TrEMBL record:
Taxonomy, superkingdom: Bacteria
Annotated protein name in UniProt: Regulatory inactivation of DnaA Hda protein
InterPro entries linked: Hda, Hda_lid, P-loop_NTPase
Domain Hda lid, residue spans: 168-232
One annotated GO biological process: negative regulation of DNA-templated DNA replication initiation
Length: 234
């Protein structure tokens, strides 16, 4: 279970036994028109300190929050799905001293009275300390099942961003972008074939890309539709 550890010279992120994924950077995120405003808001100071980002699983919320933390010295990323088993009062104490807070997977603490109250107080302390706060969840704040009225009100008072699912063209572009970042050439025919056969979740597509990249390297073969069929058993 992730927990706070004594570390006077460590960054806030290192003081938690939670690491940021090395590849979760803005440079590794394929931009698309529907997310231009979100990306812009992440790269410049915002007038409203509370920003709420929602979208389906696999759309890139965690990637963006971690990218923001990579780009902000002294920022702290909190994946609530992993932290829910910890005592929230002790875990969240003094976190408003971070340069920025990114709270991921908010849906995992919805309905937990102790966590909801602790998060509400953290948000108040963060606002008083002028600490920017980004929160991500799979649904809009009002649809999460948050029971504490004050927390619902606080979440609804920030700026809300919706991550809409990528369309077919965007999915192909994302696949080719991520393949290129690996040094792997992906023809249009392969990208179209993968999008037609694989699930719509970007996380699943990235797992498939990893398998194909390894297979292409091991077999010393370029990425083609026949190779995809062979590796994936389609």
């Amino acid at each position: 279970m992730p927990e706070l550890i004594a570390a006077e010279e460590q960054s806030p992120q290192l003081a938690l036994k939670i690491g940021l994924r090395d590849e979760a950077t803005f440079e590794n995120f394929c931009p698309r028109p529907s997310l231009a405003a979100v990306l812009d808001s992440m790269t410049r100071p915002a007038a409203e300190p509370l920003q709420f980002l929602h979208g389906a699983a696999g759309e890139g919320k965690s990637h963006l929050l971690q990218a923001l933390c990579h780009a902000t010295a002294g920022a702290l990323y909190l994946p609530l799905a992993e932290l829910r088993g910890a005592h929230p009062g002790a875990l969240l104490e003094n976190l408003e001293t971070a340069a920025l807070l990114a709270l991921d997977n908010l849906e995992h603490i919805a309905g937990d009275g102790e966590w909801e109250e602790a998060l509400f107080h953290l948000m108040n302390r963060a606002r008083a300390a002028q600490c920017p706060l980004w929160v991500a969840a799979r649904s809009p704040a009002m649809d999460l099942g948050i029971e504490l009225p004050d927390l619902r009100s606080r979440l609804g008072g920030g700026v809300t961003w919706a991550m809409t699912p990528a369309n077919d063209e965007e999915m192909r572009r994302i696949l080719q972008f991520r393949a290129e970042r690996r040094g792997l050439a992906m023809p249009d025919a392969v990208a179209s074939y993968l999008c037609a056969r694989e699930t719509r979740a970007l996380g699943d597509l990235m797992d498939t890309l990893n398998r194909l990249d390894n297979a292409s390297l091991q077999r010393q073969r370029p990425l083609t539709v026949p190779l995809v069929r062979e590796v994936m058993g389609w």
